[in-house]
Amino acid sequence: MGAGERGTSVAVCADGCVRQYERGKVAVDSVVGRIRRGEALDKDMSDMLRERVRIERDYSKQLSMLASKPMQNRDAVGSFGHLIDLVLSATDRQARLHAHLAQLIADQCDGPLRLRADEAKAVSWRATNTGSVSTRLSVHAAAYQLE
């Protein structure tokens, strides 16, 4: 095998390596793109759920204040006093239910989404740093082509 033949086989190998790298890069870029879109979706959902938690907690506080608000002229209602007690009791129960719902949303929905977003950031970071290594390999493969 002469020097020219050897250079040709290296160039062919380098050309194949470059093509293989390009196909791999497209696949990695596709996965990284999907991860980033997933991160954005998780963030949007988490923001919406946090707003829902805030609204539920505010509503719960307002209902609780309404249920504990002293009524003027309570003595004047006569036999309807029992019904007023039922309405106030139901309002207080509704306030507690909304507070519980807010806590469930925060713990079981928003928390896991935030955790998943943190994990996705770590994967995205790894993919970005791996990309710089792949770029260096591409430069080396291109250098072989020039020989």
Automatic annotation (TrEMBL):
<dbReference type="GO" id="GO:0007010">
    <property type="term" value="P:cytoskeleton organization"/>
</dbReference>
<dbReference type="GO" id="GO:0005886">
    <property type="term" value="C:plasma membrane"/>
</dbReference>
<protein>
    <recommendedName>
        <fullName>FCH domain-containing protein</fullName>
    </recommendedName>
</protein>
<dbReference type="GO" id="GO:0005737">
    <property type="term" value="C:cytoplasm"/>
</dbReference>
<keyword id="KW-0597">Phosphoprotein</keyword>
<feature type="domain" description="FCH">
    <location>
        <begin position="21"/>
        <end position="105"/>
    </location>
</feature>
<dbReference type="InterPro" id="IPR001060">
    <property type="entry name" value="FCH_dom"/>
</dbReference>
<dbReference type="Pfam" id="PF00611">
    <property type="entry name" value="FCH"/>
</dbReference>
<dbReference type="InterPro" id="IPR027267">
    <property type="entry name" value="AH/BAR_dom_sf"/>
</dbReference>
<dbReference type="GO" id="GO:0043226">
    <property type="term" value="C:organelle"/>
</dbReference>
<keyword id="KW-0963">Cytoplasm</keyword>
<dbReference type="GO" id="GO:0032153">
    <property type="term" value="C:cell division site"/>
</dbReference>
